[in-house]
Amino acid sequence: MTIAAAQSWAWLALTPARSQIAARAKTIPVFNMITDAAQRPMSFYIHREAECENGLVTVERLSGELAEAYGSRDEKPLILTASDPDGGWIGGLNGVIHWRWLYIAQLFVAPSRRGFGAGRALLAKAEELAREGDCVGLYLDTFSPSALKFYRANGFAIVGRIENFPPGAVRTFLSKSITLASASGHKARLLRRGLE
Q: Residue 129 region, left (φ>0) first, then alpha (ψ -120 to 50), else beta?
């Protein structure tokens, strides 16, 4: 971004007639801003969408750009459940594999069932399936200090933190690399397919 373009962010001029039109359309008024050193203005509306479906255009466009730059996400859900011999629910793990990484969105064990290895078993099974799926690592986040200790004891490393999120807590991001055996197995499969 040029200096002139960066300075243009300092002024966002509202055009009164357009702002009245925008108010009727329930949008934020038109902004005119300088977008480049040639001092060419660009006008646009910003509005809040009432329906989630209306945001799909953004998702599709961003997904297309990311796929072009990094390859397809090739998303596959991963859902595991731990149950007792009678079929009673003990806990579960939900996640998604994309770009050869397993994101663990949720891992939960019923409080009365904690401390007996169900959480470790769910993580171990998730890692096993990630390896089988040619993943190179796993990642997750947590707000819980006890969960943080649990994940670190299971080989995860802290890769980031956001203080006071949620308020009064810390959101911690962790990852765990899977051994190079999985990565070399993926490379061998690519070679067999003639893709590398």
A: alpha
DSSP letter (8 states) at residue 178? P
Question: Encoding tokens for residue 69?
Answer: 């730059």
The CA distance from 18 to 11, in Å, is 17
Instruction: Return the pLDDT at 192.
Output: 53
Picking from 66, 137, 126, the residue whose alpha carbon sits closest to that of residue 100 is: 137
Expressed as residue numbers, the domain containing 144 is 76-193
Count of domains for the chain = 2
Q: Please, are residues 156 and 137 in contact by the beta-carbon 8 Å criterion?
A: no
Q: Which of the listed residues 70, 97, 117 is the one where a domain comes to its end?
A: 70
- Domain check: are 17 and 92 in the same one? no
**pTM of the model as a whole:** 0.69
Give me the residues of the chain with pLDDT under 70, please.
Answer: 1-39, 180-196
User: Which residues partner with 33 through β-bridges?
Assistant: 42
User: Across the strands, what pairs with 91?
Assistant: 82, 109
